[in-house]
Every structure is written in structure tokens, then in C-alpha cells.
Amino acid sequence: MKNIKLFLSVVFVLLLFSSCENEEDLFITPGANIEVESNNANESANRGPTITFGRYFGKCQGNACVEVFKLLDVVLLEDTLDRYPVSGTFYEGKFTSFKRSDKINTSDILPNFPLELLDSKLITYGTPDAGDWGGIYLEYQDGINHKYWFLDLKNTNNPKHLREYVNLIDKKITEIGEINNLN
User: Which residues, in sequence order, are bridge partners of residue 77?
Assistant: First the structure.
């Protein structure tokens, strides 16, 4: 009986602390110091689509081997964990704002997203990073869809309808790296 009371007391305290919410944390403003961890299935139900995109190289050393970003509306966040994306699960990262992210034009990422991907049963296009030329991780999430793909960075291995977008994402990640190195 004593153990049950202790258990229920602990559960009550945990529920009490986990139910607190600060209304100021519900809105994202550009330049705010924010962190977003992992992925939640209902994360973008109340806003526009979220795009997570990144570039990765397996046989690599240094900070540029894995670079993953999340675009929430007009706010660009950078993953600080830099984990190599794996098939079978959505990318789990710790996304934070970073200096000069407001200098990066992201207005072309969502409008150019290849909507054909949403109807595709394929997850992998080409052979990403097979010859150590790298791959692109792409994730799309809105109130209805939540899907991810691995795209070949060697663009001739991708279908023609994806090549332009792969180039766009690759160039955007390079641009982010150049601006980020000015910090």
C-alpha cells in the first residue's frame, strides 16, 4: 500500500510539471533563440508545411559531413546533432536558430518542392552516397502528409523531375555554409 501511494504521488508530480505551458513559447519569431527537438507527428498541423533537408557524406571527417536544416514557415533552423540519416525512420535532430539565418533566402524551397514525391511509394532515388558522392535527405510534413526521402547527390542517378530540386537543395546548403562561416 505504501508503494502504491508513493507511485501515485510521483505520477501526480510528473503530470503537474509536464502540464505547464508558457504561451510565449507557442510562436516562433525570426531571430529568436529557439530549439526544436526531433519530430512530432502533429508538429505542423497549425501552420504551413515543414521541410527538413540536408546533405550527408559517409566517408568524411569534419563538420561538413552531415548538415541538416528545418524550415518552419520562414524560420530556418540548423540541426546541432549532425547525425547520418538512416532509412526506416524520420530524421531526429535538435534544431536551433543560428546567427545570420535571416540572411538566407529560403523562399524558393517550398514552392519548388516536387509534389510528385508525396504520391510516390519510393523512399530512395538513385544510390545516395554509394560512391561517397553524398546524398540529400528530404522530409515533408504538413497536417496530412509526413514523408521522407533519400536522393542521390550524383544527380544523373535521379529521375529528371527531381534533378532541379536536388540542385536547389545542394546549392542552398552550400550557401548556408558560406553565410554560417561568417559567424
Answer: 70
What residues pair up with 68 in beta bridges, in sequence order? 54
Count of beta carbons in the 10 Å neighbourhood of residue 138:
24
Q: Cα 98 from chain centroid?
A: 14
Return the residue matching grid coordinates 536522393.
151
Q: Copy the grid coordinates of residue 53.
A: 533537408
Closest-CA residue to 35 (of 5, 77, 84, 89): 77
Sign of CA dihedral 84, 90, 93, 99: positive
- Each residue's pLDDT tens digit in the chain (183 positions)? 555 555 445 444 444 344 443 433 333 444 444 445 444 444 444 568 999 999 999 888 777 899 999 999 899 999 999 999 999 999 999 999 999 999 999 999 999 999 999 999 999 999 999 988 999 999 999 999 999 999 999 999 999 999 999 999 999 999 999 988 754
> Nearest to residue 151, comparing CAs of 168, 172, 128, 171?
128
pTM over 0.85: no
Q: Cell numbers at residue 183, please?
A: 559567424
Residue in the structure block whose three cell numbers are 550527408: 56
Strand order in the sheet with 35-37: 35-37, 94-96, 75-79, 66-72, 50-56, 135-141, 146-152, 124-125
Task: Identify residue 126 by its one-letter amino acid code.
Answer: G
